[in-house]
Write a structure and sequence with these properties.
The complex is a heterodimer of chains A (about 110) and B (about 120). In chain A, about 0% of the residues lie in helices and about 55% in strands. Chain A has no helices and 12 strands. In chain A, strands 2, 5, 6, 10, 11 and 12 form a 6-stranded mixed β-sheet that branches. A 4-stranded antiparallel β-sheet of chain A has the order 3-9-8-7, with no helix packed on it. In chain A, strand 10 and strand 11 form a beta hairpin. The radius of gyration of chain A is 13 Å and the shape is globular. By secondary structure, chain B is mostly beta strands. Chain B contains no helices and 11 strands. The chains are: A mainly beta (about 110), B mainly beta (about 120). At the A-B interface, strand 5 and strand 6 of A face strand 5, strand 9 and strand 10 of B.
Chain lengths: ~110, ~120
C-alpha cells in the first residue's frame, strides 16, 4: 500500500528566502512521486515528477525535489520564494501498475512581503 | 500540451435536482480519468476511476447510484450528481492520464457545486 505524509501543514516564509516543503512516502514498489500546486478555487498544476530517472528533479517556477530512497523522502525546495508561490502544495505518490494517486494532506505556503 | 477542461467551473442547484459536470481532455486521448472531491482546506479524495468504454470503479463509501460516471469516449468523462442535497456541496476535480510515466496526470480546474 502507498501513502504520503506531508510533515508541515503550514509554512510561512519571507519573499526572497528559501522554501522547504517536506514529504515522506511509503510504498511497496518503485513509486512515482509528484508535487502539485493548487491556488484557491483552482485545479492542480504539476510542478514536477519523479519516475525512476534522475533523483534530483527540476520542475517549473524554480522548484526542485530530491528523491531519497534511503530516507523515503521527496522534499520540495525553491531557493527564493515569490509572492505568487503562496498556495497549497500536495505531495502525491502512485506505485506499480496502479494508476491511483495517494495525496498528502497538503501544505499551505504563505509568503510575507 | 496535456490540457484538461472541466465545465462548469461553478454551479448552484436546488436540492433534489441533478447536475452534470464534464471533463474533457483537449489535446490527448485519456485512457483513464479520475474524479475527486475536495472539502474546504482538505486534500483530494478519490471518488472513482473510469476507463473509456467500461464501468467506473468506485472507491469504498462512494455511492455509485448518486454519483454517476460516464466515460463514453477517450476525451470525455462526465460526473452526474443525482438528487443533489446540501451535503453534496463541494469542490469536484477531474484528472486524466494517457501515460503516467511520461506525461503524468493532468487536472481540470475544478467545479464548485453548491446545493441550496
Amino acid at each position: 500500500a502507498q501513502s504520503v505524509t506531508q510533515l508541515d501543514s503550514h509554512v510561512s516564509v519571507s519573499e526572497g528566502t528559501p522554501v522547504l516543503l517536506r514529504c515522506n512516502y511509503s510504498s511497496s514498489y518503485s513509486p512515482s512521486l509528484f508535487w502539485y500546486v493548487q491556488h484557491p478555487n483552482k485545479g492542480l498544476q504539476l510542478l514536477l515528477k519523479y519516475t525512476s530517472a534522475a533523483t534530483l528533479v527540476k520542475g517549473i517556477n524554480g522548484f526542485e525535489a530530491e528523491f531519497k530512497k534511503s530516507e523515503t523522502s521527496f522534499h520540495l525546495t525553491k531557493p527564493s520564494a515569490h509572492m505568487s508561490d503562496a498556495a497549497e502544495y500536495f505531495c502525491v505518490v502512485s506505485e506499480g501498475d496502479d494508476y491511483k494517486l495517494s495525496f498528502g494532506a497538503g501544505t499551505t505556503v504563505t509568503v510575507r512581503a | 500540451g496535456a490540457v484538461v477542461s472541466q465545465h462548469p467551473s461553478r454551479v448552484i442547484c436546488k436540492s433534489g435536482t441533478s447536475v452534470k459536470i464534464e471533463c474533457r481532455s483537449l489535446d490527448f486521448q485519456a485512457t483513464t480519468m479520475f474524479w475527486y472531491r475536495q472539502f474546504p482546506k482538505k486534500s483530494l479524495m478519490l471518488m472513482a476511476t473510469s476507463n473509456e468504454g467500461s464501468k467506473a470503479t468506485y472507491e469504498q463509501g462512494v455511492e455509485k447510484d448518486k454519483f454517476l460516471i460516464n466515460h463514453a469516449s477517450l476525451t470525455l468523462s462526465t460526473l452526474t450528481v443525482t438528487s443533489a442535497h446540501p451535503e453534496d456541496s463541494s469542490f469536484y476535480i477531474c484528472s486524466a492520464t494517457r501515460d503516467r510515466y511520461n506525461y503524468g496526470y493532468t487536472f481540470g480546474s475544478g467545479t464548485r457545486l453548491t446545493v441550496v
